C-alpha cells in the first residue's frame, strides 16, 4: 500500500490554508442566525404584534404585567426543563412535583404547628430528593427517562391525593395564613411589587433570576459544556471524561428546585392547595422549551429560548382573553404555535449549520 501523501505546507500563494478555521471571525449576522432562540423571538414578536392589533386592552401596562405574570409561572419551570432537554432527557413528573412541593410545605407546617419556614425548608429537601431519585434511577437502570419519570408522575399523583385525604380528610390542605412566618414567606414567594403604579408579581423576579443563572451555567461554565456534550452524545461525552451521571442528576435537581419555587408560590399565593393540581403542566413546560428552540433529541437549545417560549404562552393565554375570544380555542392556538415553532427552529438550525 502506498503511503498517504503529506498535506502541502501553507504558502504565500495559498494563504487560506495557513489559517485555522476556528480562528476565523464570524459576522454578527451569522452569530445571530446561529442562535437557537431565534425562531422563538420571531414568533414572540409576531404574537405580540398580532394581539396588539386585535385586542385594544393588550398594550395597557396592567395587561402587560398580567402577561408577564402568566409567563413567569410557566417560565420558572420551563428554564430548568429546557436545560434537562438540552442534556437529552425529560421529566414528566415536573407538573405534579410543583403540587407535591406545596403540599409538603403546607401539611408539615400545619401538622407540626411549626413556623411556616420550617415547612418550606423541609419541602426544599424533599423536592430535591425527588430530583435525585429521578436522576439516580435513570443512570442506574435501563429504561429511558420517559418511562422513569412517568412512573414518578403516577406515584406523586397518587401520593398527593392519598396523603392529603389521609391527613386533612379532604382533597385540599388547611389554611396556614395565621401561622408564624406566613407573611414573610409570602413576601418572598408571592408578593407584589409596584413600579410606576403598575403591580408586578415577585415570580417575574424569580423567573429573570433563573434565566440569568441558567444562561451563565450553559455558556460560561464547565457544567454547561457537560450539558451540551451529554445531550449531543452520551457515549462520546463519557469517553472524553464528562461526568455523565453527576450531570444528569444535577439537571434533575435543577427541575426539582424550579418545582419547589413554583410550589411555594402556589401555596403562599392562594393559602390552600388542591391535591389534584399540576397534572398536565409538564407538557406545557416541554412545549415552552421546544418553542424556544430546544431539540427533542438533546444537545441544542438555550435558557433564553425557553423563557421566550413561556412568554409566547403568556401572551397567547391572556391575549385571547383581552381579544374577547372563546378561550376554548386556546389549545388549538398553542398546538399551532408548537408546530410552527418546530418547523421554524428546524429551518433556523439548518441555516446556522450552512453558515459555519
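^ C-alpha cells above, recovered residues below v
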Amino acid at each position: 500500500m502506498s503511503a498517504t501523501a503529506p498535506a502541502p505546507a501553507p504558502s504565500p500563494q495559498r494563504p487560506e490554508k495557513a489559517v485555522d478555521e476556528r480562528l476565523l471571525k464570524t459576522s454578527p449576522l451569522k452569530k445571530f442566525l446561529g442562535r437557537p432562540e431565534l425562531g422563538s423571538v420571531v414568533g414572540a414578536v409576531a404574537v405580540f404584534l398580532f394581539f396588539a392589533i386585535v385586542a385594544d386592552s393588550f398594550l395597557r401596562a396592567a395587561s402587560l404585567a398580567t402577561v408577564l405574570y402568566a409567563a413567569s409561572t410557566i417560565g420558572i419551570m420551563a428554564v430548568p426543563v429546557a436545560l434537562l432537554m438540552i442534556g437529552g432527557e425529560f421529566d414528566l413528573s415536573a407538573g405534579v412535583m410543583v403540587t407535591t412541593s406545596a403540599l409538603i410545605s403546607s401539611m408539615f407546617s400545619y401538622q407540626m404547628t411549626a413556623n411556616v419556614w420550617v415547612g418550606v425548608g423541609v419541602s426544599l429537601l424533599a423536592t430535591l430528593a425527588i430530583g435525585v431519585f429521578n436522576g439516580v434511577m435513570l443512570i442506574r437502570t435501563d429504561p429511558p427517562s420517559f418511562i422513569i419519570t412517568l412512573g414518578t408522575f403516577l406515584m406523586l399523583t397518587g401520593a398527593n391525593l392519598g396523603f392529603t385525604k389521609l391527613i386533612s380528610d379532604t382533597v385540599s390542605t388547611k389554611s396556614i395564613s395565621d401561622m408564624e412566618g406566613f407573611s414573610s414567606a409570602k413576601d418572598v414567594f408571592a408578593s407584589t411589587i409596584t413600579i410606576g403604579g403598575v403591580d408586578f408579581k415577585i415570580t417575574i423576579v424569580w423567573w429573570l433570576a433563573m434565566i440569568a443563572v441558567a444562561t451563565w451555567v450553559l455558556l460560561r461554565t464547565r457544567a454547561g459544556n457537560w450539558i451540551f456534550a451529554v445531550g449531543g452524545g452520551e457515549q462520546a461525552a463519557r469517553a472524553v471524561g464528562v461526568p455523565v451521571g453527576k450531570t444528569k442528576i444535577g439537571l434533575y435537581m435543577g427541575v426539582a428546585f424550579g418545582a419547589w419555587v413554583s410550589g411555594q408560590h402556589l401555596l403562599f399565593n392562594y393559602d390552600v392547595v388542591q391535591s389534584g393540581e399540576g397534572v398536565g403542566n409538564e407538557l406545557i413546560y416541554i412545549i415552552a422549551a421546544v418553542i424556544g428552540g430546544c431539540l427533542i433529541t438533546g444537545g441544542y437549545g438555550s435558557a433564553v429560548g425557553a423563557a421566550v417560549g413561556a412568554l409566547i404562552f403568556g401572551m397567547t393565554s391572556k391575549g385571547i382573553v383581552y381579544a374577547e375570544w372563546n378561550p376554548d380555542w386556546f389549545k388549538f392556538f398553542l398546538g399551532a404555535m408548537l408546530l410552527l415553532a418546530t418547523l421554524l427552529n428546524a429551518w433556523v438550525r439548518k441555516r446556522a449549520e450552512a453558515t459555519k
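Residues 244-270 form the longest helix (27 residues).
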